[in-house]
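Long-time lurker, first post. I've been practising inverse folding by hand and with some scripts of my own, and I keep getting stuck on stretches where the structure tokens seem ambiguous. Below is the full token string for one chain I'm working on. Before anyone asks, I'm not after the true native sequence, just a reasonable design that respects the backbone. If someone could post their per-position residues I'd love to compare against what I wrote down in my notebook.
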């Protein structure tokens, strides 16, 4: 098993941010999060230099199923992998960064 860039626990504020984003998407569609998704996916320099890439990525995001996106996000928000690590009985590789911020912190 390889688990890459996954949290082993989801803090309450992160889960609340997922729920708020899903509420926004369900009300306004995927277009509501195109800009923030582009900004966390591409560097500011790339956004400035590659409007063609920004447009392609934006179109891909807009084309995603609202329910599919929200269901995947809810799965992430309900992740409790850390509580079950000891139950894994096969060779496993876990790859993670120190922090991956996808929601603004206030």
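-- Answer (accepted) --
I ran through it position by position. Result:
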């Amino acid at each position: 098993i390889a688990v890459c860039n996954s949290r082993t626990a989801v803090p309450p504020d992160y889960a609340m941010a997922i729920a708020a984003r899903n509420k926004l998407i369900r009300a306004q569609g995927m277009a509501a999060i195109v800009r923030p998704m582009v900004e966390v996916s591409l560097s500011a320099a790339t956004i400035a230099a590659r409007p063609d890439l920004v447009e392609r990525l934006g179109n891909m995001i807009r084309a995603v199923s609202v329910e599919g996106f929200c269901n995947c996000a809810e799965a992430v928000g309900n992740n409790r992998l850390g509580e079950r690590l000891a139950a894994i009985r096969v060779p496993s590789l876990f790859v993670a960064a120190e922090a991956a911020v996808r929601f603004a912190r206030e």
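A couple of notes from the structure itself: The two ends are 35 Å apart (CA to CA). Strands lie at 2-4, 93-95. Happy to go over any region you disagree with.
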